[in-house]
Amino acid sequence: MNILLFSIIVGLAAALVIFPITSSKKPVKEEKKNNLTGAMIGTIICTVPVVFVFYYITNLDRNISSIWILAIIVTAIGAFFATGKERLIKLVLFLVSLMIGIFILSAGLFNSDEKYQSSKMAEKTEIESFDEKETPASVPPKFARNKMRKSFGQVPNTSFYELGNLQIQKVDGKYVYIAPVEFSGLFKWWNGDVTPGYFTLSATDSSANPKFIKSEMSYTPSSYFNKNVERHMRSSFPEYIFYGDPQLEIDDDGKPFYIRSYGEFISARNGFKVEGIVVTDPENGNTKKYLIKDIPAFIDGAVSPETVSLQNSYFGNYVHGFWNSKFGKKDVKLPSDEGTEANVSPIFDENGDMFYFTDFTSPKEGVDSMLGYSLTDARTGKATYYTGNLEESYMDSEGALEIIEKKFIEKKWDGEMPVLYNFYGEASWLTPVLDSNGFLQNYFIVSAANPEISVYANTPNAAIKQYKTALQRGGGTVDGTSNAEEKQISGTVLRVYKEKVGDYTTVSFLLDNRMSYIVSSESNPLAIYLKEQDKVNVTYQNTGEAFLPVTEMKIEGLE
Known about the structure:
The chain is α+β, with helices and mostly antiparallel strands and 559 residues long.
């Protein structure tokens, strides 16, 4: 409904309730008619602008339930001025309005079960192994933002603009950060009228430089009045319930669109469940809606990170209802606040699909063990909760950041954007490390179950390779990744190197094919007897690394 029409209707209704139709006095008919007309017009003139300004500034949905506070105020005033039977009727309206207000305010106390059911996740033990041939999207947002700011000279009329919100997505098969150029104030918007474009930067290559893409946008979050994209979306869909900030999404041709999640309340005006998105072309303002199942293929983050964070809160807190979340806290698990977007971190799987990662920890203070973690599909909102190996205690993201802080305490470096991966069968935290100026220094990997096993390197893939060696030296069982091809070879051993690590021995050996292999006595006990000139039959993972991980080995004469 048009905001002016909505304001007029609300103003008329308020005037009818506030103004007493009957009177204890008995004026002449003409005087009574004039007083009634004048008072109603005056009430409407006072009410309509207030309602219009309130809804225009707050951008609130224009549903009838949104006027509950006004209804309480208006019916109270109407009951106060009315007399006789009219007072009784308006008093009943006031009590009904008050009960509705109490119901809306207290809905959060009683709808926790509905919230939990709406956020319930499928459960698994562990995510699949990461393919070491791939490069994780691990360039931290703070570093990407710093690089974009230093490249802001590419923007025409630079003084008019500033860098907008940063988000990650896949564009034309590549993982990139996107940040729109936004107006830096009202007068800059008044003089500039349109923003000139947006920046892109690789999310996998820390050495890449930002690129400025020219694409004029009139409807943006930093525009004012009816050119503000949030207000424009509200104007197109006045009754929709939006949650989360508008996000910029780029199609494979480089054309930008602003999207925003919409849905419905869980009950009353409390809670939120996503149903779809609204998409606005920032160049001309064309706006469309899509249900979740119908969203365009180029959109990665249809479900806003704010929505996912809210769903995680429902899932972690309300397993046994509202009061348990405040007092007993049985089975309560708190979602981490270490994420990069609204307390969640966007990551991509091997198929290029985006998920939001969150780890959950205990509500007990001083405990840094992880109770589990979740991955939420950014296009559908469907989530999976991973319990991890219940026989082991996993360190949470905060614990990983504390290890990094202690590791580089003299240099005052800190970690950002910790994400849990399955590297070689080991739950592991991969975290970019930044200096005090926000520049990327290295990538740090630490085992979630065995924090004493950790490595760091200049690139994520170099760190992953070092991590494999650290796991093998630590006596761990290194599983092959899902995409590494398993091969067999027979040959003669030319050189052998053995290293005692804890209760096990790591054996590195060179075959006559001039390829090197590595195996732990934990998984292959007879490897400790390996010597030069032995003939062996080896099953290994063809990862392309300098030392290929052995999964099975037979030594001739020891079978």
